[in-house]
Design goal:
Elements: H1 29-36, E1 48-52, H2 53-70, E2 73-77, H3 84-91, E3 100-103, H4 106-114, E4 125-131, H5 137-149, E5 153-158, H6 161-172, E6 180-185, H7 200-210, E7 215-221, H8 233-260, E8 272-275, H9 278-282, H10 289-293, E9 299-304, H11 312-316, E10 327-337, E11 347-350, H12 354-357, E12 368-370, E13 375-380, E14 385-389, E15 411-416, H13 419-423, E16 429-432, E17 444-446
Helix pairs in contact: 2-3, 4-5, 7-8
């Protein structure tokens, strides 16, 4: 038996887990399309997740325009929707095209492959966007081989020198060695993953990568998750500049190490400097290009993930409007309570709770706002939520429908705080298209990938 079959024979390689993609059951798309296509939204069982395909597609085109304005490549993160249909729209828009994606789970790589997105050339470059866990190296190694066979590249993210040691130990068990293509994760201030480029630990990591026979340094990757706190274009722009400065400093350090260390192989291609989060990507403009290009020590790449869908968190940045939001949750008013609010206002109950909306919050109060009605989802339990009346001044998801009142049996559409977590609660999404005659009619059903 080889070490690949029994990797625990090497102390650096723990027992391997496997992605059960071959037994990961999910609903059949065609069955769902046959059942729901052509039905009005009022015929759906609630809660239901609705995506407006026309808005989703426009958002994808806008992001391609942002990347072009910045003079950057674009890499689409697919973890928000986890569907082949959404991935195609992200990569092939009316404005431009790209063939590079980021994923958050190994299952997503497997499903992108199974969907034929690599075989037909839609996806040519995949980054597994979490620092590599040692018990997933067998899966990632096998996927690298599968992707290579159809002309696609697999890249991983690292932020610790022990990850380099695990890769080297893995490769030492194989007859035919490869060099793993890696991004080094840079912390630009969010303290979620990665290392600060000015830290001694970062320099040690770069030296470990550059001196490894099993790793090829593709570039540097950062994500300003803290940019979600932006409330203006100016604030988001500063976060974007901080991202660029962080990866540029990292690249400068690597170049100085290469220059000052005899025997290190010189670069055959410039480093890829990958930056982005949905708020900072929305701040990418041609006006910022001169400030970003000056002294750039590599090729700039922009990445983002939430942008096709959007939500209340993104609305609060001031960089989008309510008409840009492509997703919402359809819910039914299940009861009504006149005068029950603390100020004597009315309250209502709906059938969308924590599992339908997530418990993510944001700068705005509550868990979601109703479109066209001055009501907010203020409290949630597992399967139900409490709707409370909003002040007219805080209502943004207009225009107002009727007199704004609710009654038992009404179906309402709720825009939640964080689309990525909301979508994770649904086995499928009902797709409408506002560019067609009736935006309340189901035109397709998307089935997301599930699992890790």
């Amino acid at each position: 038996m080889s070490a690949e079959e029994h990797p625990q024979s090497n102390p650096l390689i723990p027992k391997q887990s496997r992605t059960p993609y071959h037994i990961s059951g999910k609903p059949e798309k065609q069955d769902l399309v046959d059942e729901y296509k052509g039905k009005n939204l009022d015929a759906l069982r609630t809660p239901a997740l609705i995506i407006d395909r026309a808005v989703f597609a426009r958002n994808c085109a806008k992001m391609h325009e942002h990347a072009k304005a910045l003079g950057a490549r674009f890499r689409a993160h697919v973890k928000s929707h986890k569907t082949p249909e959404g991935t195609r729209l992200q990569l092939l828009s009316s404005a431009d095209e790209t063939h590079s994606i980021v994923v958050s789970t190994v299952m997503e790589v497997c499903e992108v492959f199974r969907a034929g997105l690599m075989a037909d050339g839609t996806v040519k470059d995949v980054l597994y966007g979490l620092p590599m866990a040692p018990n997933k190296i067998a899966d990632l190694s096998a996927l690298t081989d599968e992707l290579s066979a159809v002309g696609a590249a697999m890249r991983i993210l690292i932020d610790h020198p022990d990850q380099v040691k695990v890769i080297e130990a893995w490769e030492s068990t194989k007859a035919n060695n490869r060099k793993w293509s890696v991004f080094i994760k840079v912390d630009c201030g969010s303290q979620r993953a990665g290392l600060k480029p000015e830290s001694p630990a970062f320099k040690h990591l770069v030296q470990s990568v550059l001196g490894s026979p099993s790793v090829s340094l593709y570039g540097f990757y950062t994500h300003a998750g803290n940019s979600y706190a932006s409330t203006s274009f100016a604030e988001a722009s500063e976060f974007l500049l901080a991202e660029v400065n962080a990866v540029n400093a990292a690249a400068g350090l690597a170049l100085s190490i290469i220059e000052g260390t005899p025997g290190l192989q010189e670069l055959s291609e410039p480093f890829v400097l990958s930056v982005g989060a949905t708020p900072t990507a929305h701040a990418a403009t041609e006006e910022l290009k001169p400030r970003i290009e000056a002294g750039l020590k590599g090729v700039l790449e922009l990445h983002a993930g939430n942008y096709p869908l959007l939500d209340l968190q993104q609305l609060n940045t001031g960089l989008i409007t309510h008409s840009d939001i492509a997703q919402r949750v359809l819910a039914t008013v299940t009861s009504y309570y006149p005068g029950r609010g603390e100020d004597g206002s009315d309250e209502a109950m709906c059938d969308a709770g924590a599992l339908a909306m997530s418990k993510d919050t944001g700068p705005r109060p509550g868990y979601g706002d109703i479109t066209g009605k001055p009501w907010r989802l203020s409290r949630v339990a597992q399967e139900h939520g409490i709707l409370t009346m909003m002040s007219p001044a805080s209502f943004e998801l207009g225009p107002l429908q009727g007199d704004g009142s609710l009654k038992l049996g009404d179906m309402v559409q709720i825009v939640g705080q964080h689309a990525c977590l909301i979508l994770a609660g649904y086995p499928w999404y009902y797709v409408v298209d506002s560019d067609m005659n009736d935006a309340n009619v189901v035109v397709d059903v998307w089935v997301p990938w599930k699992g890790w």
